[in-house]
Amino acid sequence: MGAPGEKRGRYGVVIASALAVVSVAGAVAALLLLPSVVRSRAIAEAREAGFDVTIDRVSVGLDGVTLRDVTAKATRTAGISARAGEIHLAGLSATKARVTDLTARLEGPRDDLEVGLAAILSDHRRRFAGTPAKPRELSIQGARLTWAGPAGERLSAADIAVEIASHGAGVEEVHGSVGRLELATPKAELGPWASTFERRGGASRVRLTFRPPAPDGPSALLIWPRAGATELSVDVPRTSFRDLGVKPAALGLPAEDATDVQVSLRGTLVEDARSELTFDATLWGLRPGGVSRAIDVHLEGTAASEGAKPLELDKTNVTVGPFVASVTGTVAPHAGGFQLDATFQTLPMPCEQLARSEAKNMGPLAATLQAIGETTGALRVTGAVNASGVVAYDTAAPEAATLSWMAKETCGVSIFGM
Known about the structure:
The protein contains 5 helices and 22 strands. By secondary structure, it is of the alpha+beta class. Among the domains are: 34-186, no CATH class; 345-418, no CATH class. It has a 20-stranded mixed sheet that branches. Strands 19-22 form a two-stranded antiparallel ribbon. A hairpin with a 7-residue loop joins strand 20 (384-394) and strand 21 (402-409). Mean pLDDT is 82; it is low at 13-33 and 362-373.
């Protein structure tokens, strides 16, 4: 038998060993039970946030919690559902979350969905909010989004990547991109396009690329701060409608997919102050009804407004073939684009100039006869031509566009001065 102190030491080792075994057994038991606890808690919190959720598998490790094959359906707004292949929450505090293989589906009227999504965003901003000292981060990779509207509208976005860092509710830094974006309505099909977007310091920036294989090619850029002026710029160097992912017929234009277009637009839009736009656009080879050959059209000018009033056209001219017309009227932006109501008046053109232009288009014989007449003075065209009209056009209903006009001409031919 050993000394009492030695026995106490042995008993201490045994007790410590027993406690260690019990602790390990307890930890193992907790780990075995933890996935079910995590699943139940996640489902309960999702239900509180307005989602019915199912989770196929849960794994818990030293690096955090991973949820696999997660489905969610909004209970407060119909038509919003999603499935995620994997959601990983890093650490015990879950300050970092990573979502992969996400597919989100929206079905229903756009206005209803926008209201529902705005409510979800507002609520989850508070739930997800971090602090300046301890921001919370969310990473979404390889996501897809589809929307089906009640009138046959369809939106498809793929290869979506988003990085969000929350420093507080409404204080987020967002960076993201969409690799392929397509929109279809019963009247038009647009895309494929691509997009990048970001939000920092309360200011937002969205860039739309019309030719995804050429990221530095035709594009539109929209920048708006938390308050103040919104800046808009569109840069489309000479490009065919086909390469822009737009069909001319969808815009109500009498042209083919191979028709070229060039657009340059700069503007500042302010809700309660002066808004201004400057634009320059050219269309090559339009084929309007009643015209025997293709014509080129060039439009340039400015538009401005005060407050919420429609933009008024100013110093705006359109050139159609040999004719130059001044244009006045208004442009009223709306959710579907804009509505144009305008009148035009061509500058008087001498019939002699028109005849010279037409002679070139009619071929060598007509041009030769016209040149002989000018040289000898035996044949001279007199008088002038001008025209005026009214245009009504709405991007939401291009098929309903109207053009009414009337021409006045006093052309005549003088032979040997008679």
